[in-house]
Structure formats: structure tokens, C-alpha cells
């Protein structure tokens, strides 16, 4: 037998024997697993399988990893909000502490000026009272411009202190300074021929009184009845204006005022341009008042309609049947006057009054309300020149 034939014979014999053994004798699965675990490639496969399992778990929105991540993010966000809140509180406290100290110093200074009044000579009292009024108005502006960080209760307290100082000033002025018959007149004493010639060259404006200075006397109109009264901006600019004891009158004030005091008016119409600081209304009955200001204080008045533009909250006290509507006055130089007054045209709290006699925060005050649209005066043009009906 040749070598090739022998080789073929043994290959077929061993192949047949191996096939028979594999067929009739089943392999041990556990043994194969052990063999597989001992392979040098097993560790790499295990790491790959574990990595894929972790990634699948992380991709699942309901997985523990996702929940822990969201929880950590929420906890971090809460901590950041709490930190910011603490910083804001600290800043507010610092602002209030500074404001309180500055307010105390300035109010005590006004108190000291008031205490000096009985000791001063009569001829220096008018200028002294002007200084006090200026300081009080500046202090009031200081309070109003600090309203963005002052609590509402503190805001009321400080404004009340300022009003008390202003009231005390006017009471002392009435007592110590004899007041001439109150009222504004445009007529001047006749000049001599020589005086006229000397003043002709001054009529171009250089000889006018500086309208931005504080006046020695409070001025305006007093004790008038059934009259149409008016003042223009060259007479009004930044002055302390008062309307007192008027009945059945129409008052037109086309200009920028420093403050406006309206006291004891009956059945009157008051039309005003912007007031840079405060409007004080007291003891008025059955009046229509159209005004724009930084601060409104209204006391002891009934049955009044206020067409209002106010940049801070208005305040009413001891009032009844007060109705408010938005400021709707128009005249030629109104926009220019608003720019001169620095009042913010975009901020108007005409429908947000604080009633000091009504402390229930959840129930509207019964002492004031918004004037119904059907009852509002839409055009005031005809009222500049006629008295109320």
C-alpha cells in the first residue's frame, strides 16, 4: 500500500471516530464556560459589556443616575437662589441703614432751623422760611426717590415726618411773618418817565427775575369767587404755589411748579401742568383737579374727581367719595413742561392710592374709587375760560 493511501485511510478513520464521539457524547457546557472565562480576551469583553450597560442605564430617563443628577442640579439651583436672596437682603438692609441715617441728619437739621425762628429778627424771617421749605422739599424728594428699596410702611412713616415738618413750617410762618393780602397780580406800579427809559433795554429778558429762585412769599390765588384765574410758566417755574379759599372758580396753571398746595376749595376746577415734587390737597369739596406730580397727599376732602399722573403712590386720609382717572390735560407746551419737570411719563399710579384710614389689605377702601369712563371729562379745552356750572 502506498503512503498516500495509508494517509487517506487514517484521516478517514480518525474523522469518523471523532464525529461519532461528538455525536453520541454531549459536551459539558460548564466546562466550555470555564474555558471561555480563562481566555485572554474575556476581560476586555467584560469591560465593554459593563460600559455599554452603564451608558444604557444613564440614557434611561427613569434611571437612578438621572434622578441623582436632577436632584443635585435642583439642590445646586436652590443654594444659588438662597445665596442671591441673602445678597439682596443684605444690600437692601445696607441701603435702608444708610437712608435712615441720612434722613435723621437732614430732618434734625430742619428741626433745628425751625427752633431758631423765635430768636430771629423779622427782616430775616422770610429768607429763613424759604430755606426751611427748600430743605423740606429736598427731603421729600429724597424719600420718594428711595421708594424702590424702602418698605411701604417705612415709606409712609418717613413721608409723614416730612409732612409734619412742612406743616409746622407753615404754621410758624403764619404766626411770625405778617402776611399781606394773598394773591398774585400782574399789574406793576407805574414807572416814571426816567425809569421807563432806563428799563427799555432790559426788556429782552436780561432784566427778568430768575424764575428758578425760591420766592420770598408763597404765591397764587386766595379768597376768590366766580373767577377764571390763570398763570403761565414764566411766572410758575419751580415756584411754591398755593390756591386757597376759592369758590366756584376755574384755575389754569400752564407751567412747571415746585410744589402745589390746594386748600379749602369749593366747586372749583383746577387744571395744572406738571409739579416736580408734591401736590397737597386739603379741605376741598366738589372739585375737579387735573394734575401731574411725583407725590400726592390728600386730606379731609369729599366728592372730588382727581385726574392724576403720579409717579409714586398717592395718599388719602380722612377723605370720602374721591374718584380718580388718568391725567388727560392738553395744552401747547405740555410735553416741553413734562421734560423740564423730569417726571416719568411712562409711570402713572393714578389708580393705586393708599388710604391711611383703611388698613385692610385684602378689601378695597370705600373712601375712593376709579371714576367711571362714562362720567369722565374727555376734553378740558372749553374749561380754561369759564367757571364751573
Automatic annotation (TrEMBL):
Recorded superkingdom: Eukaryota
Gene Ontology MF annotations: tubulin binding
Record's keyword terms, sorted: Acetylation, Chaperone, Cytoplasm, Membrane, Transmembrane, Transmembrane helix
Chief place where the protein resides: cytoplasm
BP GO terms, sorted: post-chaperonin tubulin folding pathway; tubulin complex assembly
Compartments reported by the entry: Cytoplasm
Chain residue ranges for the region called Disordered: 187-211
InterPro entries xref list: C-CAP_CF_C-like, CAP/MinC_C, CARP_motif, TBCC, TBCC_N, TBCC_N_sf, Tubulin-bd_cofactor_C_dom
One Pfam family linked to the record: TBCC
Keyword Acetylation listed: yes
Annotated Gene Ontology cellular component terms: cytoplasm
Residue spans crossing the bilayer: 7-25
Basic and acidic residues composition-biased segments: 194-211
Ranges where the C-CAP/cofactor C-like domain occurs: 190-358
Family: Belongs to the TBCC family.
Quaternary structure (record): Supercomplex made of cofactors A to E. Cofactors A and D function by capturing and stabilizing tubulin in a quasi-native conformation. Cofactor E binds to the cofactor D-tubulin complex; interaction with cofactor C then causes the release of tubulin polypeptides that are committed to the native state.
Protein name as it appears in the record: Tubulin-specific chaperone C isoform X2
Organism of origin: Vanessa tameamea (Kamehameha butterfly)
Amino acid at each position: 500500500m502506498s503512503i498516500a493511501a495509508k494517509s487517506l485511510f487514517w484521516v478517514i478513520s480518525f474523522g469518523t471516530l471523532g464525529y461519532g464521539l461528538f455525536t453520541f457524547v454531549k459536551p459539558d457546557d460548564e466546562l466550555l464556560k470555564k474555558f471561555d472565562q480563562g481566555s485572554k480576551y474575556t476581560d476586555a469583553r467584560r469591560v465593554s459589556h459593563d460600559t455599554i450597560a452603564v451608558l444604557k442605564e444613564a440614557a434611561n430617563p427613569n434611571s437612578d443616575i438621572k434622578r441623582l443628577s436632577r436632584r443635585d442640579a435642583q439642590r445646586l439651583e436652590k443654594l444659588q437662589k438662597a445665596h442671591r436672596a441673602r445678597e439682596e437682603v443684605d444690600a437692601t438692609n445696607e441701603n435702608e441703614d444708610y437712608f435712615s441715617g441720612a434722613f435723621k441728619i437732614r430732618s434734625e437739621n430742619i428741626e433745628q432751623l425751625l427752633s431758631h425762628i423765635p430768636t430771629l429778627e423779622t427782616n430775616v424771617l422770610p429768607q429763613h422760611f424759604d430755606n426751611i421749605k427748600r430743605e423740606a422739599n429736598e427731603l421729600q424728594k429724597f424719600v420718594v426717590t428711595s421708594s424702590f428699596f424702602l418698605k411701604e410702611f417705612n415709606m409712609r412713616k418717613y413721608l409723614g415726618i416730612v409732612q409734619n415738618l412742612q406743616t409746622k413750617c407753615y404754621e410758624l410762618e403764619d404766626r411770625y411773618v405778617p402776611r399781606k393780602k394773598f394773591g398774585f397780580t400782574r399789574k406793576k406800579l407805574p414807572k416814571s418817565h426816567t425809569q421807563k427809559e432806563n428799563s427799555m433795554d432790559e426788556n429782552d429778558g436780561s432784566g427778568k427775575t430768575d424764575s428758578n429762585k425760591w420766592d420770598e412769599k408763597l404765591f397764587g390765588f386766595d379768597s376768590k369767587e366766580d373767577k377764571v384765574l390763570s398763570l403761565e410758566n414764566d411766572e410758575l417755574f419751580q415756584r411754591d404755589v398755593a390756591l386757597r379759599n376759592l369758590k366756584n372758580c376755574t384755575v389754569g396753571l400752564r407751567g412747571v411748579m415746585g410744589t402745589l398746595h390746594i386748600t379749602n376749595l369749593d366747586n372749583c376746577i383746577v387744571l395744572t401742568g406738571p409739579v416736580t415734587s408734591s401736590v397737597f390737597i386739603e379741605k376741598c369739596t366738589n372739585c375737579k383737579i387735573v394734575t401731574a406730580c411725583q407725590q400726592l397727599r390728600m386730606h379731609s376732602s369729599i366728592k372730588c374727581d382727581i385726574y392724576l399722573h403720579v409717579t409714586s403712590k398717592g395718599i388719602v386720609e380722612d377723605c370720602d367719595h374721591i374718584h380718580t382717572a388718568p391725567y388727560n390735560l392738553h395744552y401747547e407746551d405740555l410735553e416741553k413742561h413734562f421734560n423740564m419737570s423730569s417726571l416719568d411719563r411712562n409711570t402713572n399710579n393714578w389708580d393705586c392710592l393708599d388710604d391711611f384710614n383703611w388698613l385692610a389689605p385684602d378689601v378695597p377702601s370705600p373712601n375712593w374709587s376709579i371714576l367711571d369712563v362714562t362720567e369722565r371729562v374727555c376734553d378740558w379745552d372749553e374749561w380754561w375760560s369759564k367757571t364751573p356750572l
